[in-house]
Amino acid sequence: MTAGKLLLIRHGESTANVAATAAELAGEETIAVGSRDADVPLSALGDQQAAALALRLEAEFDDKRATPALVWASPYLRAIRTAQLALGSIPFVIDERLRDRELGIIDALTARGVEARLPDEAARRRWLGKFYYRPPGGEAWTDVAFRLRSFVRDLDSADDRPVVLFTHDAVVSLFLYVLLGWTEQQLDEFLLTSVVGNASVTTLVRDDARWRVEAFSDDSHLARAGLPATAHPGAARVTE
What we know:
Blueprint: E1 5-10, H1 15-26, H2 44-60, E2 70-73, H3 77-87, E3 93-94, H4 111-117, H5 119-128, H6 141-154, E4 163-167, H7 169-180, H8 184-193, E5 201-207, E6 210-218, H9 220-224
Parallel strand pairs: 1-4, 2-3, 2-4
Antiparallel strand pairs: 1-5, 5-6
């Protein structure tokens, strides 16, 4: 990968984010999501958050030399909509490797719901741990890391201009794992205290072939727009 700067942008608040948080707080077993994960739209606030990103990116690319060499997005509707609102006429490429982690049999279940309805899966997850547990029909964190390693190998910019990715919270976290060379334990510790906020920008820069975090989950553009920051953990983490 020849790019020297990588902007990882989580989608704006989605209707599923709101429903999942409400279900967890209410102690419910299921999350009221009316569509498959790929088709979950942004909430009204999520649209506003995504639009606020436009000014953030204009400041980032305020001269032609800083125009992003490549812009990519997850194929999921909430990520595509965020990219459209944030980028305006700037084109982007959709790549399924940037999609959210697939939850399979535990999709649309809260943590309480998994314990109550799938106790064997809950026990298996506790035994294997967050990183290696793969729900039937879904993905382990390692599966997502594997497709991201493939994406990184294929991502090649002609120069060191920034690359922008519109994606999901679990994917942003795993990009840090992949590019910074973290261990399973380091990722676990990170996830205990760190949440990738909606419409936030995480910036990685590369110095002498080594990546470092310049900014994590920066959502200052939301405050400047008078919008609340939201930190829903996302469907990929709500059961963990």
